[in-house]
Sequence to fold (152 residues):
Amino acid sequence: MRAVGRIFAALIGFILAIVAAAVFMLSASVGLGPADPADSVWFWSHFGVGAAMTASYIGATALAPWAVVILVTEVFRLRSAFVYLVVGGILGLLPSFGIASMIRPLDDDPHSIAILVATGIVGGFVYWLVAGRMAGIDGVFLTGRQVPKDEP
Fold:
């Protein structure tokens, strides 16, 4: 039963990480407010729609590699925030090499590369906050008893 809970935690963590990464990426690209206060309604409506589109794009791009990361961290009980930050940064760096699907190479634009790496780190950190800190099943199986670390 705990394994089912971990699946839901990973799913919710992934969704929240994607939303946080999209909002961060959009904020880093266009800013946190309109240049003219009279344009605030248009800015925030476009920001909301842009964040939803960016989240769907990031989610579609990151789903397969992040699923592998989630599986590995759950199986090996990797709970360190460092793991998720590094992997998020690496996944954010992939488009600059043209490796990630659906994203064109960035042609060595350091500003765009820095935004993508930071976006991956933000996504990895949010995933760690929601689901990564409790990664792994900890030896609780159908019996419900805790298996000691030295026992197979």
About this structure: Residues 78 and 112 are 30 Å apart (CA to CA). The mean pLDDT is 84. Helices lie at 2-30, 40-75, 81-97, 110-130. Residues 40-75 form the longest helix (36 residues).
